[in-house]
Design goal:
Oligomer: single chain
Strand content: 5-15%
Helix content: 40-55%
Number of helices: 6
Shape: elongated
CATH architecture: Orthogonal Bundle
Radius of gyration: 17 Å
Distance between the termini: 29 Å
Structural class: mainly alpha
Strand order of the largest sheet: 1-2
Length: 141
């Protein structure tokens, strides 16, 4: 798995949206400023997040984005996959042809590690990450 800035920024932006979740839409400009992420990059990410039904857009004055589900129902895996990130450590990406057309000696190892990562990220929701951050913030960590 190569989690690029695309996946990290998508999760960060979604966490921002979820942690500031009100009934009012939040503009990408505000998220951009708060998280120090390029506005044009956020626009690309949110187009994919909207297509995956993770956010919804509100047009017009006072428009912006809202979560399309509750933060407790959106997993990190959903976000990462929505922006076309791949949670797979195998060089062959599951095609079993990583060693001159044959399965490499470490194929099964990377299958298991990839599944562990996928399970970990799938078990974490936006709300869980926000709650954990708030707990650590209150502890002074």
């Amino acid at each position: 798995m190569q989690l690029t800035t695309k996946g990290r920024y998508a999760v960060t932006a979604m966490l921002d949206l979820a942690s500031n979740n009100t009934s009012k839409p939040i503009t990408l400009d505000i998220i951009s400023q708060r998280q120090n992420i390029s506005l044009s990059y956020l626009e690309q990410l949110f187009a994919k997040l909207r297509k995956a039904s993770l956010v919804k857009s509100v047009r017009g004055p006072g428009g912006g984005y809202l979560l399309d589900a509750q933060a407790k129902d959106i997993s990190l895996t959903q976000i990462i996959e929505a922006v076309d990130e791949n949670i797979d450590l195998r060089r062959c990406k599951g095609m079993n042809g990583c060693n001159n057309g044959r399965q490499c000696i470490s194929h099964q190892l990377w299958c298991e590690v990839s599944e562990q990562i996928r399970t970990f990220l799938n078990d974490k929701t936006l709300q869980m990450v926000i709650d954990n951050h708030d707990i650590n913030l209150n502890k002074g960590l």
